[in-house]
Design brief:
Order of helices and strands: HHHHHHHHHHHHHHH
Distance between the termini: 26 Å
CATH architecture: Orthogonal Bundle
Number of helices: 15
Structural class: mainly alpha
Strand content: under 5%
Number of strands: 0
CATH topology: ABC transporter involved in vitamin B12 uptake, BtuC
Shape: globular
Number of domains: 1
CATH class: Mainly Alpha
CATH superfamily: ABC transporter involved in vitamin B12 uptake, BtuC
Length: about 325
């Protein structure tokens, strides 16, 4: 069984690299894969260099980072709550980030501080929600992990109402920008930011892998985990903070991208099983590849018009999720 899982991981690694090559190649200006080495060595034309380094590579790296982050966050949250329907956007963090971005756009901060103010506002809003939930947990206001989930869901509803309030008071131009951001997009980025995002997501994977045995124990239930010597309260809080950071990272950089954190963990569990030793890297690779390919489709399927990538992931991911549920029921 272990050998089969290793073979599956190797297959997912191949899919991961294929998605990178595919996404770097396709577009309005096509770059053949055999030209990649020439461009990297500095022998590409000015057009190839501009397209490769200025547009494609930053976007592909950001897609890998966001897809991997959402998938990894989904795996962690589903293990904590022992519920396959929990995803990163159900715990209120995305709502806090979205509201902060809406506020920043509505107040005109983007015209003063530039595009990076959106990323900063999104991460700040998500961090405030994380801090609030952590403070409530630390002072004993949140007595159980299920109460933590319900608190996050209620915060999501509150922030949704606040976002509608901001939209109703914003100008038509600002409202259009906010709505487009809420649908999810990888369009605006730069190479350094994308490298940082991917490195941060990979670092989170490496750290969580050190505690993968605790995730396996949590799937058995709190009582069984206690018998195995696991401090369940501390483990749940640790993984919740890790999932929160990954969600904050993804939402602040790309907006709301639906179903990646829900559909990919479901598929990964079907393919790999529940052992987090293999499930964590498998979901990381699969989520990264999935979002990168979806983004390539979003920018080419109705070229030269670009669709929000959240539309593509919602259609594909939602269809896969429903099909899997129906097949399981049957």
């Amino acid at each position: 069984m272990s050998r089969n899982r290793k073979n599956i991981l190797l297959a997912l690694l191949a899919v991961f690299f294929f998605s990178i090559v595919f996404s770097l190649s396709v577009g309005t200006y096509r770059i053949l894969p055999e030209r990649f080495l020439e461009i990297i060595l500095g022998n590409g034309s000015s057009v190839e260099n501009n397209v490769f380094y200025g547009l494609r590579l930053p976007r592909v790296l950001l897609g890998l980072a966001v897809g991997a982050s959402l998938s990894l966050a989904g795996i962690l949250l589903q293990a904590i709550f022992r519920n396959p329907l929990v995803e990163p956007y159900t715990i209120g963090i995305s709502g806090g980030a979205s509201f902060a971005v809406c506020l920043a756009v509505s107040l005109g901060l983007t015209s003063v501080f530039g595009r990076h103010s959106v990323y900063f506002a999104g991460f700040l809003g998500a961090s405030l929600v994380i801090s609030l939930l952590y403070a409530l947990n630390s002072c004993g206001r949140i007595s159980s992990i299920n109460t933590l989930l319900l608190s996050g869901i209620m915060l999501s509803f509150i922030f949704s109402a606040l976002i509608m309030l901001v939209l109703s008071l914003s100008s038509a131009e600002d409202a259009h920008g906010i709505i487009f951001w809420l649908m999810g997009s990888l369009e605006h980025t730069d190479l350094r930011l994308s490298i940082f995002a991917f490195a941060a997501s990979f670092l989170c994977l490496a750290i969580v892998m050190l505690f993968q045995h605790e995730l396996d124990a949590l799937l058995l239930g709190e009582e069984q985990a206690l018998h195995l010597g696991i401090n369940t309260r501390r483990a749940q809080l640790r993984f919740f903070l890790a999932a929160s950071f990954l969600t904050a990272l993804a939402v602040s950089l790309s907006g709301i991208i639906a179903f990646v954190g829900l559909a990919i963990p479901l598929i990964a569990r079907k393919v790999i099983g529940n052992s987090h030793r293999f499930l964590l890297p498998g979901a990381f690779l699969l989520g990264a590849a999935f979002l990168t390919v979806c983004d390539s489709l979003a920018r080419t399927i109705v070229s030269p018009t670009e669709l929000p990538v959240g539309v593509i992931t919602g259609i594909i991911g939602g269809s896969i999720f429903v099909w899997t549920l129906l097949k399981k029921t049957k």
